[in-house]
């Protein structure tokens, strides 16, 4: 198949593109610079120079493709409108990437027992209300002659593009540990995020392309850990003997920025990928987060 992928030079999009190319598909990837074009070309992706703001480029690329994977931004409404408009009436799938912070709540590092699957009602936080509204807009196009599908990953970890780790939360924690000589979490670090290995995530994209019905929404996870557990594993990996330290939210905001500290590093996001397992037969099998930190791609 001919597949058009936005975010083809990024962690998720690049990993998905590599998986699809290995399966024999032809992937055209949207990139923003000649340098990124050369990088993706070396991995077998046909580069297309442009940005998410280039409506004509997105429309034409989507119309030429059999499948569109949007992995560049979970929040770019104009790009989504362009892609959906191009696919309307075609029956073709649009696989859109969201993120499980849509069920997250600001908790200042405290634990929450709220767990969500695809059928659990949820009122998003103000920080994620626009993303949830965009997801609903995308899925509403199941009645307009295309096949919109949303994949909603939890905390992603593991080596992207076969060239080392490039996720968000874990590298932030590792970089801070190296800077301070000890791992540190926001607040008590009892907050929990579900997580998924990038290798398992890309297989979910392939399954969704193959057989997800129009209007489907899938969480992606295969376990969960607290930020404290992640920090303890980082200390073991780096050879630091001390226990991780607890930062105040002011300290965390100074390190990561207020929104990242509040909505990512000190929040809870606990989800269950019930529908992906039941409906698509997804069977994640990669090593867990703690093992990956201690013995995998994050270890120097």
TrEMBL record:
- Per the database record, which ranges form the NAD-dependent epimerase/dehydratase domain? 4-212
Extract the InterPro entries matched here: Epimerase_deHydtase, NAD(P)-bd_dom_sf, NAD(P)-dependent_oxidoreduct
A molecular function GO annotation: aldehyde dehydrogenase (NAD+) activity
Question: What Pfam families does the entry give?
Answer: Epimerase
**GO-annotated cellular components:** cytoplasm
Superkingdom field: Bacteria
Give start-end of the signal peptide.
none
Q: What is this protein called?
A: NAD-dependent epimerase/dehydratase family protein
